[in-house]
Specification:
- By secondary structure, the chain is an alpha/beta fold.
- The chain contains ten helices and six strands.
- It has a six-stranded parallel β-sheet, with helices on both faces.
- Helix 3 crosses helix 6 and helix 5 packs across helix 6.
- The radius of gyration is 19 Å and the shape is elongated.
- The structure holds xylulose-1,5-bisphosphate (XBP) and magnesium ion.
- Magnesium ion binds next to loops.
- The site of xylulose-1,5-bisphosphate (XBP) has 17 residues, from helix 3.
């Protein structure tokens, strides 16, 4: 074996190699594929106005509320703190969340939320090398469709072997359910895969499923604790 070959074999595997070598890349959506939380926040506020609630979530409030994953759960959490005596019924919360989701679709269409740096190249190159792609997210399938139909391509879902959304499982992140469901559907072992996430809740969810995690830091979770991540980057530029 010549020195060149030996040096390549002994070279520590770069992060790019780790990404390319994974049997499955499992991608989070909000914050990872695109900076969508600002639009989610506006959609929640539009729903509150339409429903006649005097609620308004500014960025500071929303950053705290994002510790609760899932829009319906976030509404309930806010309602409990704002009006401890009054508990919105599940049907009232579900109705409010449907309104919010409708506004999210309207806002995404109006404001064309772009993919974050490096995401389109990662997806394109992953497909070119025959790698399996999956999505594991807390949001709804309709929100993924609204975002990726415009930001990626009309037939975006053909690029992914499976898509697991928040309401497909019993427990949302930081529980591992969405990641365990991806593994079960695709029949891969956790260590063969790599999750790409943006938040501590996402890191906990994938790690609890035994999946190594690359963190691509996003706007609302920049100062989260990412201990245990395989690596933390500011974005996916040049990593695809
Ligand atoms: C982020 C979330 C979602 C969104 C709002 O999901 O926690 O709840 O904030 O979307 P991801 P919904 O796992 O993709 O980072 O209102 O549809 O929940
Ligand atoms: Mg996220």
């Amino acid at each position: 074996m010549n020195v060149e070959t030996l040096s390549v074999l002994l070279r520590p595997r770069s992060l790019k190699d780790r990404i390319a070598d994974a049997a499955v890349l499992i991608l989070d959506v909000d914050g990872t594929l695109a900076e969508t939380e600002g639009i989610h926040r506006r959609a929640f506020n539009a729903a509150f106005i339409e429903a006649g609630f005097d609620w308004y979530w500014d960025q500071r409030t929303y950053k705290k509320l994002l510790r609760t994953t899932g829009g319906k759960e976030r509404i309930q959490a806010f309602g409990r703190t704002r009006y401890p005596g009054i508990c919105l019924s599940d049907s009232e919360v579900a109705k409010l969340h449907r309104t919010k989701t409708r506004h999210y679709g309207r806002l995404i269409a109006q404001h064309t939320c772009r993919l974050r740096p490096g995401v389109a190249a990662l997806i394109r190159n992953s497909r070119a090398r025959g790698q399996t792609l999956a999505i594991a997210t807390t949001t709804t399938y309709s929100n993924i469709d609204e975002l990726l139909s415009v930001a990626l391509e009309a037939n975006w879902c053909d690029l992914f072997a499976t898509v697991v959304a928040g309401d497909d499982v019993a427990r949302k992140k930081p529980a591992p359910d969405v990641y365990l469901e991806v593994l079960a559907r695709l029949g891969y072992g956790a260590s063969e895969c790599l999750a790409i996430e943006d938040s501590a809740n996402g890191l906990k969810a994938a790690s609890s499923a035994g999946i190594p995690v690359l963190i691509s830091r996003s706007e609302y979770f920049r100062d989260d604790d990412f201990s245990g991540a395989l690596a933390v980057v500011d974005d996916l530029t040049e990593l695809g």
